[in-house]
Design a protein that fits this description.
The strands form 3 sheets. This protein has a 4-stranded mixed beta sheet, with helices on one face. The protein contains 6 helices and 10 strands. The protein has helices spanning 28-35, 40-61, 119-129, 132-138, 146-164, 228-233, and strands spanning 8-14, 71-72, 78-79, 87-92, 96-102, 107-112, 188-192, 198-203, 208-213, 223-225. The longest helix is centred in the N-terminal third of the chain and has 22 residues, at 40-61. By secondary structure, it is an alpha+beta fold. Helices cover 31% and strands 21% of the residues.
C-alpha cells in the first residue's frame, strides 16, 4: 500500500472582493512585511497566503498556527527549519492564493490567471521564457488558444524553478516541461523530468496550475476554500 505521507496536498483560497483578511495568526515579522506593500491588494494577498500556509502547516506539524516557525532561504524561499521532512510552496494570482505541501521531498507550485496576457504580451515574453522548440510549438495553436497554452508552459517552468529553490533567478528557457499535443492536454498533463522529478499540470475553474515534485507521487484533488473565516475557526 502506498504511504499516504508520500503524497502532496494542494490548497487554494479565493479572496472575495471587499473582504478583509485577518492577520491574527501571522508573526510580528510577517505583519511588518505586509505593512511595507504599497498596494493594498498585494498586502491582502500576502496576508492571505500566510494565513492559508499557517492554517495548513499547523495541522501538518501539530503546532498552533502562530507557533509555526517559517524561515527564508538566501533566495527568499520559505521553509520550515524545525520540520525538514515537510516542504511547501505558495503561489498567487489576483484573487487566489495556493499552497502545496509535501512530505516526499521538495515541491514547487505556480498558478496563473487565464486571460491575463494578450497576444502582444505573449510575443514579448515568449523569447524570454520559451525554447525555440516550444515557441514553434506554441505558434501551431490559434490566437484564441495561445494565451492558455503559453501560461501552462510558463507555470510548468516556474514550478520547476521554485522546486529547485531559485525561482526565476534562473533562466527558464532550458527547462523542458513537456508539451501537451492539444489544448485539452493542458487540463491534465504529467511529465517526468530528466532529473527524476515530476511535473503535473492542470486547469481549475479559476486558474491554470503546475506543481513539480522532487520524487514522483500521485497528485490529489485540490481542496478549495472560499472563506478565510473557516481557516480561523479550524483552530479555535
Amino acid at each position: 500500500m502506498e504511504d499516504a505521507r508520500a503524497q502532496i496536498e494542494l490548497y487554494s483560497l479565493h479572496l472575495r472582493a471587499g473582504h478583509s483578511v485577518p492577520d491574527t495568526t501571522l508573526s510580528p515579522a510577517e505583519r511588518q512585511r505586509a505593512a511595507t506593500f504599497r498596494s493594498r491588494e498585494a498586502a491582502r494577498s500576502f496576508v492571505a497566503g500566510r494565513l492559508l500556509c499557517r492554517s495548513v502547516l499547523s495541522r501538518a506539524t501539530g503546532c498552533a498556527p502562530q507557533s509555526v516557525a517559517i524561515a527564508l532561504s538566501p533566495e527568499g524561499r520559505p521553509y520550515l527549519p524545525d520540520h525538514p521532512d515537510i516542504d511547501f510552496n505558495l503561489s498567487r494570482t489576483a484573487d487566489i492564493v495556493a499552497l502545496a505541501v509535501s512530505r516526499n521531498g521538495r515541491v514547487g507550485l505556480d498558478i496563473e490567471q487565464p486571460g491575463r496576457l494578450d497576444e502582444a504580451e505573449i510575443r514579448h515574453l515568449a523569447p524570454l521564457v520559451l525554447s525555440h522548440e516550444e515557441a514553434d510549438w506554441l505558434r501551431q495553436f490559434s490566437t484564441s488558444q495561445r494565451p492558455a497554452v503559453f501560461l501552462a508552459l510558463w507555470a510548468g517552468k516556474e514550478a520547476v524553478l521554485k522546486c529547485h529553490g531559485r525561482g526565476l533567478l534562473d533562466d527558464p528557457r532550458p527547462i523542458a516541461t513537456g508539451m501537451p499535443r492539444t489544448i485539452q492536454g493542458i487540463q491534465s498533463h504529467t511529465h517526468n523530468l530528466r532529473d527524476g522529478s515530476q511535473i503535473h499540470r492542470g486547469l481549475e475553474p479559476r486558474f491554470i496550475w503546475a506543481v513539480t515534485i522532487e520524487n514522483p507521487v500521485t497528485v490529489p484533488a485540490w481542496q478549495h476554500q472560499d472563506d478565510t473565516a473557516c481557516l480561523i475557526r479550524t483552530h479555535e
